[in-house]
Amino acid sequence: MNPKIVGFEELSDRCKKLRDAGKKLVATNGCFDLLHVGHVRYLQGARALGDFLAIGLNADSSVRELKGTRRPIMTQDDRAELLAALQCVDLVTIFPQLRATQFITAVRPAIYVKGGDYTSEMLDEEERAVLKEIGAEIRLIPFEAGYSTSRLIEQICKPRPQIR
User: Fold this and answer.
1) Which positions of the chain have pLDDT values less than 50?
2) Considering only CA atoms, which of 85, 112, 151 is closest in space to residue 30?
3) What pLDDT does residue 47 have?
4) pLDDT at 158
């Protein structure tokens, strides 16, 4: 397994050492099912905001609760490995909860990033409270137009003319 994929305890320990060394930690979370260019650009943008990017990856069970019983397409281990392979990603941890509160508490980021489909008011109340408590700045990165996992799934399932 990729050494960038860690459990909560190691995530918390490593992030504390980085904060103590004066590094600016950036955190984000999501399902990242069927990783696509929009995800990659989003993560590159998030990483550019600080010195270190930690990702909280929704476990398969929470993806099912959030997206429905036909998701995820890819297992949590495969999704974690793909994310960890990206140069802009420093650490990945998988969390089974619906909310990212425990992940945020473990990282204690200077900056917490969400995609352009969110507003700070749309963030979960519990997550917002933790972010306020630790003094994290909330930044929204606009989505890349035309890229989404749902759209990708539709394209894959749509009949196409034969390519010669």
Assistant:
1) none
2) 112
3) 98
4) 75
As a whole number of angstroms, the distance between CA 27 and CA 92 comes to 10
Task: Give me 32's structure tokens.
Answer: 């990242």
Match 């969110």 to its residue by tokens.
118
Q: Are 91 and 16 in contact (CB under 8 A)?
A: no
In this structure, are residues 29 and 147 in contact, taking their beta carbons and an 8 Å threshold?
A: no
pLDDT of residue 43: 98
151 CA to centre of own chain: 19
CA-based nearest residue to 112, from 81, 84, 133: 133
> What is this structure's pTM?
0.89
Domains defined along the chain, listed by start: 8-157 (3.40.50.620)
